[in-house]
Amino acid sequence: MRREEARMGREPLRLVQFTRSFHIGGTEVQVLELLRGLPSSYRLQVSVLEDAGPLIGSVWKLGHAPEVFSLKGTLAQPNTLVQIYRLSRWLKKHRVHLVHVHDFYSSIIAVPAAKLAGAKVIVGRLDLSHWQGKARRLLHAQVTRMADHVIANAEAIRTLLVEEEGLPRSRVSVIHNGLDLVRFDARAKEGIKDPLPETHGIPTVIHVANMSHPVKRQEDVLLALAMLRHEGTRLNAWFVGDGPRRPGLEKMAQELGVADGVHFLRHRTDVPALYGQATFGVLCSTAEGMSNAVMEGMAAGLPMVVTKVGGNPDLIVDGERGLLVDPERPAQLAQAFRRLLANPQEARKMGKAARGFVARELSLEKMVRQHDALYRQVAHMP
């Protein structure tokens, strides 16, 4: 059957989810949620650049064996063209109607391949391209313009696509990330899996992010803690995540005289339970898409202190579901921490409102439903 027949409901919509790999990350988690949640009326297939990552087992359990189109190095080599050709042949063979591609590297392969195969293609733009150099940003913009439609997960990303990259607003949809509250709550109830440092009754702020890129600005939390310590206010901090920047951050904590209250917990599998043990959360990045870390903190009922960047203002209304501060302003972070510590009733009210917002607006069901509607719309476009 051809695509026209699929439009008339005579066969399932053949959809490919294409992502770089299934290492632990926000994008990969959202792809998994789509694979779990989309209706059985889809004929789903998965493609990757690398058949790797700790989440790959979950993909197999869902009955998907990812098809691999490996770059085997940089984009600037003949193999890139080979993989584009291979993918186009594969899409034609499986009579795929629609490809949803989720990241930069996969887009370079999947968008031209889909065009060659006569399939529709949706590009996911899930961050502000802050980690890319100028050449990659230009390439990403060109590939994005080739797509039939674009999904951004935050208003700030749609603004970038329209105002800086020149995409028509009608070709960009905002679909926020979704969070499965039932699964999140179940994981929280499993409790702490590894020992935690003793807090001695001192309030604790939790920061969940990798330590691979300076955009996360863990330094500003350390500076805010030092400011509070200088005035006699004690606050513990748990840094969850790891990466090559950790030794430098540990040294900074020592130099600032706050190391006795700063604990680097590295990677943890019990993050929902950790949130439940903290007083409030923080994410002070200089750039963000739609942060799963902020969403999970909100789901745990924590007031979150976040910077006014990217998708953070989509999640937090200042003074209602948490507090907003300017990026790279540790003094503002310290002031926000003071406010929450001095007003525990207000902090609890913010946390309750944050949890309610996640339940209403960021449910997994809503995210899947919006993707489902858009997939059918794009697949049926002439």
TrEMBL record:
Q: Which domain of life is it from?
A: Bacteria
GO terms (molecular function) for this protein are:
glycosyltransferase activity
- Annotated InterPro entries: Glyco_trans_1 (IPR001296), Glyco_trans_4-like_N (IPR028098)
List residues of the Glycosyl transferase family domain: 199-355
Domain Glycosyltransferase subfamily 4-like N-terminal, chain residue ranges per copy: 24-182
| One Pfam family cited in the UniProt record for this chain | Glycos_transf_1
Q: Which UniProt keywords apply?
A: Glycosyltransferase, Transferase
Q: What is this protein called?
A: Glycosyltransferase
